[in-house]
Fold each of these.
Amino acid sequence: MLSPSRCVYRALGRSLSAASRANNVLVLQNASGLSVCRQLVYRSPQLCEFPTSANIFHIRFFKTSAVCRDEVVTVKTPAFAESVTEGDVRWEKAVGDSVTEDEVVCEIETDKTSVQVPAPTAGVIEELLVPDGGRVEGGTPLFKLRKGGVVAKATTSPAQEAPAVAAAAPPTFVTHPAAASTAMPQVPPVPPQPAQAKPVSAVKPTVAAPAPPFPEAGGRRENRVKMNRMRLRIAQRLKEAQNTCAMLTTFNEVDMSNIQEMRKTHKDAFLKKHNTKLGFMSAFVKAAAHALTDQPAVNAVIDDTTKEIIYRDYVDISVAVATPKGLVVPVIRNVEAMNFADIENAINALGEKARKNELAVEDMDGGTFTISNGGVFGSLFGTPIINPPQSAILGMHGIFDRPVAINGQVEIRPMMYVALTYDHRLVDGREAVTFLRKIKAVVEDPRVLLLDM
């Protein structure tokens, strides 16, 4: 049995031999894979009798069998982290959509973050194996992708293809006077294939139109939106914290005059040397690391299983970041060994990953203390909730000019309220107040860090 390539060359040789015996031969080549010659157009020495009795050209088509058909691959759910077992699928593409390599096909929303599933190669979505909103585990088949496929809106017949090739041919190839004004023969059109019905999973979910801000006169509307897994997990953890921890909050206020002056004086040189901006967050993160080292009980945690207290000699601070899908807390690790520039670079890197929805579960595991900055939204005062299994959380608020007493005189200073919520089962009031005053001292005068006071 001959291979497809040998069959192609044998058929091509026979056709060229027949064409060499005819006069005024015109060969149009279209090389694509093994299809060396797509059309061979020549004038026959004897005219064929057609109903129109017109002198026309014969067209002979050569079709070859594909040696390698388009490969269909099945893309599976990537492996989750140890603390994540399942997630919900949200499709970005539907059946028949063309995708490029590394283009996101769907997102899997887990309890802690969203995992993007890209296309391994360019192709066409062949089938969706999981409905939108379906629950999957690691290794679950998600969709089938046809490599290198092209979405065809309608079947192209040879009759439509032949005139296009003839029109694209240079005029120097025309050797018969009547050829320029004679139309190509119409080949009977190939009946179009019936449209393949798409499964329910291929239909993209329809986004409901947002409700008007104020109901129309006499109208009362309700819009129900399903809670995503991240929001459900956040709600569950916050309620667990309320039910488990004996939470208590202590407050203080920080004079931001010195830190603002330091930032104003050194921000240009800091940006030039470290290629990052100097903000207030690095001062509070470093102050928290200094205070956690001084008060190890705030950095500790209760193991409810063994009824033991776990003290740590390292500081991993979680920084709360608000995203459209919910609150995430990426972790800055080993803060006790960092300077201001290291902290600013780490915060910027984690913030960029959060904006691009690229945070992994490993980026949010293992924090020993949390800082929440509600001041970016204009918060004046508030009591944060502990992020379990941690034992305390620091709440920052907005900076506002207020009259304060300085050396017996009333002055206008930029002031910030800070709050520390702690688990009273582990942390006593003395330790909590001392911890918060230590943060106040470091932020108001960063020279305390140099003197290790």
Amino acid sequence: MDTFLNHKILPDFLNRMESLILLGGEEIPSFTRIYKHEELIAESSNEVEKNSDSSFHSEILCLRDAKEKIGTRYLPECLLITSLEPCLMCAGTILLSRIPKVIYLLPAKQGEGISSLSIETIYSRNFFPELICIPAEMSKEAFKSFFKARRKKFN
């Protein structure tokens, strides 16, 4: 793993994520950042509930923001780091954006995340990012707490 990731990006990401978790809220605690080389380009949290739109995942919002800031369709020199393995919808957007490296802190269930994409899908795109899972207890606990509170609220 990149030394820079160990010494700057990951600790900074975790600190920011922790501050967002403490705020709580109605949104699933998904948080995403995109870096170009060593520079933070964009960050987003889920806004599905806020916008009543299931496409407002943190990864997609972050990709849109990064592309707008850089002024390009592709992000070949960027790194995406996120609290939860990107879902299949986000995976498609990541592939089409040509992000070369995706780091996530909590794997999705089998068949629900980017790591579950079929060989056919990967070959049809002629591109696939390096996937790195760095398990983080903070991310696991944030999601467990969020869903426990949701079940309590709706039961």
Amino acid sequence: MSKNTDTAPSRLPVAVIGSGPVGLAAAAHLLERGLNPVIFEAGSSPAAAVSAWGHVRLFSPWQYDVDAAARRLLAGTGWQEPDAQALPTGNELVEQYLRPLAAVPALRAALRLNSEVLAVTREGLDKTRTGGRESTPFLLRVRDASGSVTDHRVRAVIDASGTWNTPNPLGQAGLPAAGEAEAYAAGVITAPLPDVAGRERDRFAGRHVLVVGAGHSAANTLLALGELAELEPATRISWAIRSSSPAGVYGGGDLDGLPARGVLGSRLRALVEAGRIELHTSFRITGFKTSDSLTIVGSTPAGEVQLNVDLLVPATGFRPNLDMLREVRLDLDPAVEAPRQLGPLIDPEFHSCGTVEPHGARLLSHPEKDFYIVGMKSYGRAPTFLMATGYEQVRSIAAALAGDREAAERVELVLPETGVCSMDLGGSCCDAPAAEEEAEASCCAAPEPAFLGIPTGLAHGRSAREES
């Protein structure tokens, strides 16, 4: 193991973990503040996780997808900014914005690809040691593509590593079901958000596919399978959710505050009512049996049920990987595993629709000075992350690290008056309030277009309503 020890603490770089939209924006803001970023990306290319779901279209237009500091950094490169009102796919986000941004010389020099951060700690101090802690450099243990491990000394850490590689388990109570690991190993459980109609079409055509979950990613996968079944009639589609009704996934139809979401729900409802999707409600997975096919054992109000399918697509959301932060002093909300002050604002158990106020360094701080979790990972297990909010997070943090407390506290992001739905696109803002005055107070009182960032899915249809 090698170790870089040749830099005085005051001249050390700021580590940014992850080169997705928020990670690259963090580096851009650090550069503007005269700070030196070093970006560790586990993948072989910038924004590797975004590329994994590149076929998915965002519900936020370009005007909210480009960070201000990144735009300024790109201004002198000949970069052509996309149409502000267009809705990009993940691939378009990468090709038209993130890769050009990562290619800007100052960021290219800071970017370390194939660099997986294994652990974050303080040099010479584990979590229990307090004396001199705040003045001691951080130590990042990083593994490269060859398997070599190097310790890197840095002055601060911004963790923008996301949640893509840690999907929620399919079993009940937050735990993997019996046989789940074996089913993944056998390849009969796919990665989240597979490209059903594109590069993975042959894998799904003519097969019996079960989609588990009741969020945006589940709805999109089901619709893609429906289109595939039109061309490949032998394709059979099943759908399992924990809740007793799919009404929350269908949304408000023509009255939905997000028109695109309303169309999504209406199309899905039509497929179910036409019998083209076999729906299983109140279904809790208790086990898997893997042989030539996959058997899913589920608990329902009517007793145990077994479903035999060829493939299962998980759409149960994600959770943060906190293993690498074991030696960092964190202060996390006990429910959603977001920074404690942010957790109550985004907890989907209590918030089905409304705004998440723009926030920065103060709400994202931990007992570990100069350590921050940002972006999708900062939302912990909460289902939907707004990209523009992530850009405001890192603007504020860069200001704080540069010693500009006034700028760090200032809010520079203005959200649409209609707010941002804190459920994912499969969730429902509209539950038909019984009284007119309730409707006026609800998020559905004024069905004006709003926008969302990156949807991450709901855990088996978890919503603000109690599950039946």
